[in-house]
Amino acid sequence: MSGRDFTGKIGIVVAGSVVGILDITSAFVIAAIRGTGSMRMLQGITSGLIGARSFQGGLATAACGLAIHFLIAFTVVMIFYLASRRINFLTEHAVVSGILYGIAVYLFMYWIVIRLVFPSAHPSLIRDVTAVLVHISLIGLPTALIVRRYSKP
After folding, report:
1. Average pLDDT of span 8-26
2. Three-class secondary structure of residue 4 per DSSP
3. Distance CA 153, CA 4 (A)
4. Interval 93-106: pLDDT, tens
5. How many domains are contained in the chain?
6. Are the C-beta atoms of 119 and 76 separated by less than 8 Å?
7. CA-CA distances (angstroms) from residue 52 to 55, 77, 111?
8. By CB count within 10 A, which of 32, 66, 79, 87 is most buried?
9. Which residue range is the domain that position 95 belongs to?
10. DSSP readout, 15-72?
């Protein structure tokens, strides 16, 4: 394994961890503001897999939701990292690519995944504006900047 490959793997771990923590923290804050609670929000993630019974699963289904969340965060980072190996623009212009990637992740998650998993979910202006800002600032930008940092030879 070359030094660059090892450094890239460290970058993926760092970026995935940072993005996962930032995003879940924002989700906890939003859940608290809405009065939903963090455990119910995490169980809501699991409900995409097992349905409404996730809300009776207690800590186990909340932990499953947290694991799913971090799996998604690491997948988002891995996709950007792999793309950045072929498209130099992504690391050369990390701020622009981070903003665009955050928007792309938002579009994929909210307009494809959520609609498939939760067909009754309805978009709202405040939810979508908040989600776009979260995806840009807490997912796209950190992903691009951290991958760029660990991509230098």
Report:
1. 96
2. helix
3. 6
4. 999 999 999 999 99
5. 1
6. no
7. 6, 29, 21
8. 66
9. 3-151
10. HHHHHHHHHHHHHHHHHHHHT--HHHHHHHHHHHHHGGGGGGSHHHHHHHHHHHHHHH
